[in-house]
Amino acid sequence: MNRDAEGGALSPAELRLLQHLQLLRTDAPEPTAELSAAVLGSVRWQSAVRPYLVASGGLAAGLAAAAGVVLGAGARR
Amino acid sequence: MHDPDQGLVERTLAGDLSAFEKLVQRHQGVAYRIAARIAGPDEAEDITQDAFLRAFHRLSRFRAEGSFRAWLLQIVHNTALNVRGGRRSEPREEVESLVEATAADELERTPAERLEDRERRERLDSKLRMLQPAHRAVLVLRDLEGMSYEEIATVTETPLGSVKGRLHRARRELIQILRENTYDWELPK
Q1: pTM for the whole thing?
Q2: Is A66 part of the contact surface with chain B (CB cutoff 8 Å)?
Q3: I want to staple B44 with a disulfide (CB 3.0 to 4.6 A). Which of B36, B39, B61, B188 is the partner?
Q4: Which overall architecture, per CATH, does domain B110-189 show?
């Protein structure tokens, strides 16, 4: 079949190119067996520390706001 | 359109990490292949890991009207291009039948023929890397992964018409590169 079903007619050179590209499909690179374990490991520790980071970020923001109020009041005196 | 990953996405959002593990296992192959073809095999593992982590942390932003796979591959594609610095049934059936034929042929091939195939694969892979990254990406997604134009448009965040034009230019560019190669790729004029 000399058509790309969605893209229209293919030239003879394009058809030949697609045949060559099959070589790459049969020898596709594959991830190592450790990949999913590495992703899940990172997800687990990041999920574990995230609430603390969010909480400490909130605390820091609160302290900064409080310091701003105190310093602002001091400066007005 | 029903997304087969939707249930796993919802469970992940509810805090079930085993659901996300299933998503990783389901899509790591295609994510890795695309990363390797766009950015090179040395970077592929890092890109794939990085893309899955980004997907996990951004999952609440994922809109269920699209597919999780296309959304994930969009992250892989963007990450791979940054690192670089830089279904339809008919074609898929064609490709699959060719792959099956190749696998059957492989059993009957002599060691010399297999060696020649390997050399051709390596040459072709190196020529593919000579394409502009954006051209290489659409060619990989269409001609190696067999994706639909619509899915490619989502993954590359490019209008459908531009995908078609870009793919045409990518094929033309690769044909030109192969014609300039000393190895005879038997590409008709």
Answers
A1: 0.78
A2: no
A3: B36
A4: Orthogonal Bundle (1.10)
